[in-house]
Write a structure and sequence with these properties.
Blueprint (H helix, E strand, L loop, with lengths): L5 E3 L8 E2 L11 H4 L2 E3 L3 H14 L5 E4 L6 H10 L8 E5 L5 H9 E2 L11 E2 L1 H4 L4 E5 L6 H13 L1 E3 L6 E3 L3 E6 L3 H6 L5 H7 L2 E4 L10 H15 L6 E2 L1 H9 L5 H15 L4 E2 L1 H4 L5 H6 L15 H19 L4 H8 L3 H19 L1
Helix pairs in contact: 2-3, 6-8, 9-11, 14-15, 15-16
Length: 358
């Protein structure tokens, strides 16, 4: 077996990074943490090559993929492989805020725009001027705000909240979602004109279960990082642990893998990390071999990709809820998902069931 292909990003420690994370002040090492992509399969190597070519332009990019597949890593890669590398990379998660707060975060506000607006404040769009704006979970943006984003993409200009003066910016926009935007357009939940504006260049990031050969190399990267951080240089990751990782399906993708490795390193008092330290679901090996209960997504290719993935998504969540006796918080943690995302999926499923019952 040939060695892994690591794609390094050109690190520059003085690159401005603006993040909507309230702990952004503690993220000085963010570029080094996001600095390596493992591309150890032909499909991933081809994907990375295409993304590097796209990075050289200013075209809008749409990144598609399940939660935890590394969409932000690829967004940062596009920025750092681009001509805008010396300028800010600004991150905004569209699902974390209400519509009103999201508009304010995006466009900023003028003094007196609302109670408590004692001074003008720039939004993430303005902070990203001459750099890159990354809009994560774009599929969850409200329709009214989508119209304002459309104008920004068309004209590269906007109004601050409460303002009348047009502000012009020179930005590159990268958006990401784990939703089926085509379906959202058909259902009237996402503007078709905005979809086409975003979908200039799109890339689908494959889930981790479709690239098991990369798991040992990813696990090794995380293991070295956390043993160094925890001051445990003599710790070893066993072949049995790596084998268990490759047999597990990782519904939470790379994020869940990183969490499992970090948890094992932090909590273990042993010199070796084995399968028992990973705390994977007890029945994972049986499920990796027998799937009688799974939705029929493999038969004759009858289902379209997004239909198949949607069915399997519901199946994984239902199984996690059964194991946790209906506890959504524990189910989300087991899947490596945010609880808000899991609750939203369940709400969508309930709405579909009610619609089908009529």
């Amino acid at each position: 077996m040939s060695g892994p292909t690591f794609v390094g990003l050109p690190m520059q420690k003085n690159i401005p990074v603006v993040d909507d994370d309230p702990d952004a002040v503690f993220r000085e090492d963010v570029d080094s943490r996001y600095g390596t992509i493992v591309a150890d399969t032909p499909a991933m190597a081809s994907l990375v090559a295409l993304i590097k070519r796209a990075a050289d332009s200013d075209a809008t990019v749409l990144l598609l993929g399940e939660s935890g597949t590394g969409k932000e890593l690829f967004a940062r890669s596009i920025h750092q492989w681009s001509r805008r590398i010396e300028n800010p990379f600004v991150v905004l998660n569209c699902v974390a805020l209400t519509e009103t707060l999201l508009e304010n975060e995006l466009f900023g506000h003028e003094k007196g725009a609302f109670t408590g607006a004692t001074a003008q404040q720039k939004g993430k769009v303005e902070l990203a001027d001459n750099g890159t704006l990354f809009l994560d979970e774009i599929g969850d943006m409200a329709l009214d705000l989508q119209a304002k984003l459309l104008r920004l993409l068309q004209d590269r200009e906007f109004h601050r909240v409460g303002g009348t003066h047009l502000v012009q910016v020179n930005i590159r926009v990268i958006a990401a979602t784990n939703c089926d935007l085509s379906k959202a357009v058909r259902e009237g939940k996402f503007r078709e004109d905005l979809f086409h504006r975003l979908n200039v260049i799109s890339f689908s990031i494959p889930p981790l279960r479709d690239r098991p050969d990369e798991i040992p190399h990813l696990a090794g990267l995380f293991f070295r990082r956390y043993t160094k951080e925890m001051g445990k240089p003599g710790m070893r990751l066993t072949e049995a642990a790596l084998g268990a990782m490759q047999r597990y399906r990782w519904p939470g993708n790379v994020r869940e893998l990183e969490n499992a490795v970090a948890r094992a390193v932090v909590l273990s008092t042993d010199r070796e990390i084995g399968p028992e330290h990973l705390r994977l679901p007890q029945d994972y090996e049986a499920k990796s071999q027998v799937h009688e209960e799974e939705p029929q997504v493999r038969e004759s290719g009858a289902l379209l990709y997004h239909q198949a993935m949607e069915r399997y998504r519901y199946f994984l969540i239902e199984q996690a809820l059964k194991r946790t006796h209906g506890n959504q918080t524990k189910a989300a943690e087991a899947l490596g998902l945010q609880r808000s995302y899991l609750a939203r999926v369940l709400k969508q499923k309930q709405a579909e069931n009610r619609k089908n019952e009529k």
